[in-house]
UniProtKB/TrEMBL annotation:
Protein's recorded name: ROK family protein
Organism expressing this protein natively: Ruminiclostridium papyrosolvens DSM 2782
Family: Belongs to the ROK (NagC/XylR) family.
Taxonomic lineage: Bacteria, Bacillati, Bacillota, Clostridia, Eubacteriales
Source domain of life: Bacteria
Entry-linked InterPro entries: ATPase_NBD, ROK, ROK_cs
Amino acid sequence: MNTFFIGIDIGGTHVRIATYDETLGYISDIKKVKFKKSGICELEISENICDLITSAINEMKQENKVLKGIGISLAALFERTTGNIVKWPNNMTWNGFELKKYLQSKFNVPVILEDDANSAALGEKLEGAGKGHDNLAYITISTGVGCGLILNNTLITGANGWAGEIGHIKVVEEGPECNCGNKGCLQALVSGPALLKRFKELKKGCGDTELIQLPEVAVLAEKGDADAIEVFSRAGMHIGKIIANIVMLLDISAFVIGGGVAEAGNILLDSVRETAAHQLKYFNREVKIEKSALADINGVIGALGIIYRHINNREPEMMLRLS
């Protein structure tokens, strides 16, 4: 029997879906659609998940292929045993919804939910900058800061499924206030909003910067603007120190950095690498730190990998096809 898997990455603004053909061993072109928000939980799930799954099933049915399982990447807190949504900050309408049970009942196949950072980590390991590494950390830096950890080829989720919350590690005493309520968290220092706020503070009195966005700050840094360079260099220093601490704690040798802030490229990454190398110089540790090779599609690829692993107890031999 020819079988396939479906992976879905659900974000606050977009949903991505892909299939993995188990017989041919390749990933389909990844479809990206805008998240349809109505404020009605079941309607949103129908329009943003079920309709996409049904369309994929019908398409694959024409090739006599049968759905074997569904993997879902979601930036939400959920109960790992039940798959019930506990809290999704992007959309409180889904809080309490029995997502796994609902989808398994509707499509009659196994469904696995995973945190978005964990899914992205597996995606990078399977087809991205972490390929070939059994010990890997994926760090995403955008509106928030998260981390997915893979140790000895195993995704580490922790006792409650919340492992890798490095955004809320205290970096400096009495630093800026974080949205978690504490002060000096990594997220409050290196997230996109934090960097933009810092740049505007440095430029206060030097013209109108109210409408400037972070990509423009990165361009200014590339052109030699001292304040823009300082913003990214300081962020890289904080991230580099955290990476060095993770290396000492878990002996991870490969790090992949993604998210919107990582799009600044070497302006950020050079500082990350230099700081980590300086802190590790006495310990003979070789650490690879790379920008994500998959950008915003690592989550959907990871979702495919997670459901494949769950059913087959091994990694898929994926071949990525990009349209």
